[in-house]
Model the fold of this input.
Amino acid sequence: MSTSPIKVGFVGLSNKGWAATALAPSLLHPRLQGAYDLVAVSTTSEASAQASAEKYSKDFGHPIKTYYGDSAKIASDPEVNLVAISVKAPYHKQVVLPVIEAKKDFFLEWPAGVTTEDTKTIAEAARKQGVRSIIGLQGRHSVAVIKAKELIASGAIGAVKSTNVLAHLGRDTLYWPPVVSEAKNAEYVHEKKNGASRLRIPIAHQLDQLTFLLGDFISVSATDALLYPVGTVVDADGKPTGRTVQTDVPEHYSITGFLKSGILVNAFWRGGYAAGEGTGRRQYIWEIDGEEGTIRLESNASLAAFPALVEPDLYLNGKKVDLATQGNAVESISVAWMEFANGKGDYATIEDAVKHSELLDAIDRSAREGRRINL
Done:
C-alpha cells in the first residue's frame, strides 16, 4: 500500500443516502488507515456542497474543499488523485467523462451508465487516458462469498456442476410495486430507461457474485413477467398518498444458462409478495452443487435479495460455517478500496461493468425474443 494517502474528491456525497451510509464510512475503515483521505466534495449546489464539507471535515479531521455543478471542477483540482462518483445512473456518463479527461482515476457506482453503450464509452475513454477504475460491485468481497470461494478452490465440494438461485424482493421493501415509498425514488426506479430496474441493480449484483465465484456465462435464456404494473405510493408512515406509479420493470425473472466451465445456472427472482415471517417465504438462497457436496448462502432478511447489502449465512454440506468476521456493506467496500490502493486484487473495474452490461442485455433480449442467446 502506498505510503502517502490517495486523495479523494467525491461527487454526490451528501448527508444521507448510499454514499453517506456506506461509501464514505468505508474510507474510514481501520484496514485503510493512512491509505485514503477525503479532500474535496462536489454536489449539485453550493449549499449542499457546504453542508457536506462541514459534516465530513469533522469525520476526516480536517477542512474539505467544496465544488458544485460540473464535475470537471473537482477533477481539475491538482490535489485530487481519485474521483469517487455516486449519482443516479442517468448522470454517470456525463459526470465521469470529464474526470477521465482530466486523467484522474475514478470510482463509479454500479451500473456505470444506463446502457451498454454508455458503459463502453466510459471504458474506451478510460483505456485511452490510461486511468484506473473501480466499480461499486462490492458484493464479491462479502465475507461469505470469499469463504465460499476458498471452499470451492480447496475441493471441499468436488467439481461444481450446477448452481441455483432463489430470491424474493417483497412488497415491504417499498422500492417497486405493488407498494412503493414516496421517499425511495418512486418514479426513478420504475422506468427501464433510468437504469435502476430489478435486473440492473439487485439481480446484476448477484450475477457479479455468481460469475466471480464460478466464471462467465457462455449462453443464457430468460423469461420475465410484469405482474404488478401499478404501485400504490405510501408516505413515511406507510399510509397511501392517493398517488400511484406505473412501471415497465418486470418483477419476475427466470434465468438459465451455461457458464464457460460447463456449469448449469438456474436462477428464479420474484417480487411483490408479502414477505413476513408468517408467510414462510424464503427470501434468498444460493446453492452451489459440487459432485461431493454443496455450499449454500442463505438469508431471510427483508433485503436479502440485495446480496451486495446483506451478508448471508454460509453452509457447507448443511452445516453452518462460522465466519471469522461479521460482514456488511461497509466491510465489503473497504476490501475493494484496499485492493485498489494495493494495485492488485479482485475489485471490479469498468471492464467488468461492460461484461455484465452485455450479459444483462442478453437476458433482456432472450426474454423479449424467446430464445437462447450466446455470449
User: Anything to note?
Assistant: The radius of gyration is 21 Å.
